[in-house]
Amino acid sequence: MTTIQPNTGQDEPHPDVALVERVRGGDIAAYDELVRKYERQIFRIAQHITQNREDAEDVMQDAFLKAYQKLDQFQGNSKFYTWLVRIAVNESLMRLRKRRTGKMVSIDEDLETEDGSVPRDLADWAPDPEQNYTQTELGKILEKTIKGLPPGFRVVFELRDVQGLSTEDTAEALGLSVPAVKSRLLRARLQLRERLSRYFKNKPGSRMAGPRVARAES
Amino acid sequence: MKCSEFIALLDDLIDDTIAAEVRAELETHLHKCGHCEVIFNTTRKTIEIYRSHDLYELPNDLRDRLHAAIMARCKKGC
Q1: Which domains does chain B have, with CATH numbers?
Q2: Which of A148, A173, A211, B4 pairs as cysteine with A85 (C-beta 3.0–4.6 A)?
Q3: Is residue A125 helix, strand or coil?
């Protein structure tokens, strides 16, 4: 999977800066390049928040259109992708609000959930536990497991651990403080681990680890 | 070190964002505590599995269609 590499050299401008400048100069092909570069990641973020494929498709389109329209407001002191994620997150939340008939939805709404920082399942996992499932079964397990987390946790985990953004960039993209991102990441990782343990742990007396998906409880 | 203190610093150990002396303390605890060793290894495995599995894949035909729609509207000024 493609991950977004952080800009390592502080002095070297991020390659997106030149593309953004070209778009501002009227070069639509440069925007085509930016869309191609980030569309998969934006789609995944929208899916994580909306949990609906059609909504995610709409959000992806709307986010890129809005970014294009607002490009003159983009400040060079943040990265283009971070700015784009922020637009996509806002679009996703608006889409959720529409579905929930105007109910306020925000990335902060999950602060009151169970702490999740005290691991309960301490059984070790089978070696290469994912090998006990087909790709389709594994996909269902991973999706079902992450869906159980609040949206604010899912998106922090996606940005930090799957896409490889820094804590600072994740905080900026989500409008959260750095300590809030750190706290959510730890809880997201521990809760995912706890839930995956149901499928992946070593079963005493059995050579096969984990229940089949069809019989798995949520 | 208590297990709760280890868990609080688990992310820093996984992400390697801690000073060498704190890291040494955490590793000492890890060697003595089987539970924390399991939590550390399985949390790392959790991240690895999610990272290597494309959860919400965008099929190429759909991607092309959405891409074309975006670019067509941008060309018209949105």
Answers
A1: 3-75 (1.10.10)
A2: A173
A3: strand
